[in-house]
Amino acid sequence: MQGGPWRELEGRRRAGDPVLFSGTLRSNLDPCGSLPDSRLWEVLGAVQLRGAVAALPGGLDAGIAHGGGNLSVGQRQLFSLARALLQDAKVLALDEATANVDHATDELIQRAVDGYVRDGCGRVLVMIAHRIDTVMAADRLLVLAGGELAESGPPAELAAAGGVFSRMVEATQRRDGGERGR
């Protein structure tokens, strides 16, 4: 795609970085301007940003600095997730959506995504993640090692099977002092 807000991304994006454009919160959430405010507020509630946006001067029309520089990393990630949820796609792919956020924001993202895929509309989530906690609620994991599929199945079964995922869980537990890892 040439021109437009996507030009801002050229050579500046890292995996896991949320993408926001200069403009307003509204234009970042609904670039085509086709959604009613009620839908925007509904999704902002799902990602726990409703109160934060309502408190901003201008609310949905509050300004966003280039790249979302006037927001925290967690807020940028949650706004990017809200924009993705507003697309109402049957398949949502998230690549390292929780890589650069704190544990509390990680949990917010997981709850919002869980609600999205379990709403009875037959949606599918493809999540690429390195944090064990991020994938433990999945229905099915595909575990890669050396660029190859090493194993697949429900997380609890894989964690108990003694394979690649089991070793990942054990390493995370050792690193985190026995708590299930981030």
Automatic annotation (TrEMBL):
The keyword ATP-binding is annotated on this UniProt entry: yes
GO MF annotations in UniProt: ATP binding; ATP hydrolysis activity; ATPase-coupled transmembrane transporter activity
Keywords: ATP-binding, Nucleotide-binding
ABC transporter domain boundaries: 61-99
One cellular component term from this protein's GO annotations in UniProt: membrane
InterPro entries: ABC_transporter-like_ATP-bd, ABC_transporter_C-like, P-loop_NTPase
Official protein name in the record: ABC transporter domain-containing protein
Phylogenetic lineage: Eukaryota, Viridiplantae, Chlorophyta, core chlorophytes, Chlorophyceae
